Amino acid sequence: MNILLVYAHPEPQSLNGSLRDFIVDRLQGNGHSVQVSDLYAMGWKAVLDPDDSLDGAIGERFHPERDSRHAFENGRQSPDIAAEQDKLRWADVVILQFPLWWFSMPAILKGWVERVYAYGFAYGVGEHSDRHWGDRYGEGTMAGKRAMLVVTTGGWESHYAARGINGPIDDLLFPIQHGTLYYPGFDVLPPFLLYRSGRMDETRYRQVSAELAARLDTLETTAPIPFRRQNHGDYEIPACTLREDIAPGVHGFAAHLRSAGTDDETEADAGTAVATAA
């Protein structure tokens, strides 16, 4: 397979740097082709602005959506954006690796998403009507590809448990997994999570490496998170809200997951958490 690793950590000699090298070596050892977008090493420009188009703002003021569409459709995107889009087209699997900073991804990785996910490339695609509200959430440019997060946290696993002080890790990662990845069509695999990243010795590192190797070895066969597809009957279109008979009484992020072994019409309990792997 072709695998793109988008890596966001500023220190090559960090734990994340070691894991990045391990990931690349393991994947290549398994016969996969690997490209790495090391955002800090690349000096990636994180800010979305008029310079993302070779033409600058095409109107009196900068309009991110309109100008992004113009640049994408007319081949006028800045070269760094176009190069990352080519990597995404090439990839069968995309891995986003980052430390959890202030309950989200580092700003440089968020900036990669904002700039690379151009209008017409990752959003604003497909028919918009009273029957089909765009090719998104299970459809879109990335449909047929897989994606996975590799995330380190300084906090304990218990801090991110269902009743942990930091909030459930599944909820914290939902905007990234469901929004950033599932929105343009990726099948999203359960994340690889490493807690207490500042407490690492050789014994634990060997254990973590073995667990990560197992996940990398099964990228093709691991079942994705069962997010609901937008245009396949679960949602009222164009309101994009769940039908009343789907997961009745369930609200929030959990409502957008299918429960294992149930039919949509009989889903009384859709509150299962996203499966995670440590």
Which series of helices and strands comes N to C? EHEHHHEHEHEEHHEE
Distance between the termini: 24 Å
Major sheet: size, sense and barrel closure? 6 strands, parallel
Average pLDDT metric: 91
User: Structural class of the secondary elements?
Assistant: alpha/beta
Number of separate strands? 8
Q: Proportion of β residues? A: 5-15%
* CATH fold-type name: Rossmann fold
Number of helices: 8
Rg, rounded, reads 19 Å
Q: What low-confidence regions span 5 or more consecutive residues with pLDDT below 50?
A: 260-278
Task: Fill in the keyword field for this structure.
278 residues, alpha/beta, Rossmann fold, 6-stranded parallel sheet, two-stranded antiparallel sheet, 8 helices, 31% helix, 13% strand, globular, disordered C terminus
